[in-house]
Amino acid sequence: MEFPCGHKGLVKWVEETAAMCRPERVHWCDGSRKEYDEVMAESVRKGSAVALERRPDSFLFRSDPSDVARVESRTYISTSSPEDAGPNNNWIHPDKLKEKMRKLYSGCMRGRTLYVIPFSMGPVGSPLARTGIQITDSPYVVCNMHMMTRVGNEVIKALGTDGEFIPCLHSVGYPLKPGQKDLPWPCAPMEDKYISHFPEENLIWSYGSGYGGNALLGKKCLSLRIASNIARREGWMAEHMLILRLISPEGRKYHIAGAFPSACGKTNLSMIQPTIPGWRSETLGDDICWMKIREDGRLHAINPETGFFGVAPGTARSTNPVAMEMLERNTIFTNCALTDEGNVWWEDMGEPIPSHAIDWKGRDWNPQSNEPAAHPNARFTVPISQCPTKSPDWEDPEGVPIDIILFGGRRSGVIPLVCESFDWDHGVFMGATASSEATAAILDKVAAVRRDPFAMKPFCGYHMGDYFQHWLEMGDRLGDRAPRIFYVNWFRKDPKGRFLWPGFGENSRILKWMCDRLERKVEAVQTPAGLVPRVEDIATNGLSLGKDALPELLRVSARDWEGELEPIQDFFGELGSRLPLRLRYQLEALKRRVKDGRSCPEG
Question: How many Å apart are CA 549 and CA 501, to the nearest integer?
């Protein structure tokens, strides 16, 4: 076994892992295009991937039907005390969980290649960057990590002989006997799937799944669940947020970090094309945001990833033309349909419905079929470098200063189109009480309305009450240099179930109002929920809206909000004594405003 590095701790860990998993061979990834092409060609040869004739350097994978999304019920935060993991996470004691998983790992890579993937989250050398080393037996993971992170020799060089790294162990959990034919998508049964995090050791172990965030361990596992723990200890923030630069006609740059649950328009917003004349936007990231207070006292953010792992269904030229353009080449598709012409297709793509296709399960499909051609959580993986709207500063190791923090969700009623917080504590309350209707990004069944604070419920690697407290403390440190906080709901409907707001590029009109608030150009109306725009301050030139649509979109009804109070109180009750007193105060203040029907903040 050859080791292309002099890091004794890393070498020892790889040797110990190989002895436990017993692979046929070990390969250290160098991050080169040659390596990517060779691994992908082998995947095509084995029948795991299909080369797409209509999209250069693009490939389609189909997963096993049992392995199509995140599995929250099999995801664990393993700490010495269950109280530290919190009620928002599944918990098993580290000793018990490791004992169980070591048995599963024993011989799990027989007949396979053990890949060592050195990767950096964030530009190598950035003050916020972190190094991970993923061991995996999945060629699919190798190719996706090439796109999603900075992989290879540069990372090994920066690690040196004693640098810190986060060990990330992954196996699909399907060892091969001599002569046994492999499956196109090997994985373990549901009861043997484990996505485990040991934050006290900065350690990740994943077994049994080959899909998305279960297997691409730099994604949610490192960049959120483990990083949120590191960030809390060190005084920075690891968030499930897009990063967007909005540029006014005068050239003023506004940087926005926004948290939305999966499949609620986060990628679309990150690539927004403003419909207001003179306004422009640039994409910095669509999913992960690491923020640190820099020397100027402001919160600066980087996107630690180098690619997009986006939801395909619903992505179309009418909704996200930027994404459609970047997907024309050099893209990995997962669980989309395959057309007879050698292209991919999915529902709501905006392209003609094929008369025949091979669906995501590998079966013949036609428009009369009873099931969708693409899985609702079908994905694309593509490098940020291909994004037409990428910012020239997307790899700036110093990050960009955040002006606005944005929360949102998918609600058909109650929540107004846009609402500004009264202050930082109230903004934290907004994020803490965020909710959204269910999405297809997780396998587990969920309630129709899901309480998803900060869009972090599946990703916060410690007790959610402590997480809220960390946000409050960051606000104390930022003081008057803190970003302004807003909440948006693009999905409000009329009584007939029709969307009231056109969304997509038109959302720039709401972003402009936020920027006008920063510049003190417009006033706002005080309501029990927060500060909402005056109707006349929303730019509507060229926008086709019914005469009553905008007033209804901005309406805050105390009676409607009465129905929100009990669910919020119940959720806060789950957090017990670790719920910050300042958020208890915020809830009581909301109750008084709703009860009295008053339109001003209290305290």
Answer: 8
408 contacts: CB under 8 Å, gap ≥ 6: 258, 259, 260, 264, 265, 434, 487, 488, 489, 490
**pLDDT per residue over 367-405, tens digit each?**
999 999 999 999 999 999 999 999 999 999 999 999 999
SS3 564: helix
Please state the pTM of the whole predicted model. Answer: 0.95
Specify the amino acid at residue 144.
Answer: N
**Cβ pair 61, 309 in contact under 8 A:** no
Question: Is the confidence at residue 440, as pLDDT, over 80?
Answer: no
Dist CA 385 CA 273 (whole Å): 18
Angle, alpha carbons 155-160-166 (nearest 5°): 60
Tokens of 435: 């909710």
Q: How many CB atoms lie within 10 A of CB 192?
A: 15
Q: Which pairing describes strands 531-533 and 449-451: parallel, antiparallel, or unpaired?
A: unpaired
pLDDT band of residue 2 (cuts 50, 70, 90) is low
Rounded-to-integer distance, Cα 20 and Cα 1, Å: 15
Q: Enter the tokens of residue 22.
A: 């017993």
The whole-angstrom separation of Cα 66 and Cα 545 is 43
332-334 and 59-61 as β-strands: parallel, antiparallel, unpaired? parallel
Sign of the torsion formed by the C-alpha atoms of 91, 93, 96 and 101: positive
Please give the pLDDT value at position 457. 94
**CA–CA distance from 159 to each of 7, 69, 130 (Å)?**
8, 32, 10
Give the angle 511-513-514 at the CA atoms, nearest 5°: 65
pLDDT tens by residue, 540-592: 998 989 889 999 999 999 999 999 999 999 999 999 999 999 999 999 999 99
Q: Which residues are designated catalytic?
A: 264
CA distances from 266 to 119, 271, 388, 539, 561 (A): 25, 9, 17, 22, 25
Spatial contact of 206 and 170, defined as CB atoms under 8 Å apart: yes
600/417 Cα distance (integer angstroms): 19
Cβ count near 205 (within 10 Å): 24
Cα 99 from Cα 196, distance rounded (Å): 12
Structure tokens at 536: 């006349």
Residue 35 is encoded by which pair of tokens?
Answer: 């390596």
Q: Calculate mean pLDDT across residues 289-310.
A: 97
Over its C-alpha atoms, the chain yields an Rg (Å, rounded) of 24
Other Cβ atoms closer than 10 A to 352: 8
In the chain, the domains with their CATH numbers are 8-30+71-234 (3.40.449.10), 239-303+394-596 (3.90.228.20), 308-386 (2.170.8.10)
The structure tokens listed for 213 are 């965030």
How far apart, in Å, are the Cα atoms of 83 and each of 196, 347, 457? 17, 43, 16
In angstroms, rounded to a whole number, what is the distance separating the alpha carbons of residues 206 and 198? 11
Interatomic CA distance for residues 202 and 211, integer angstroms: 22
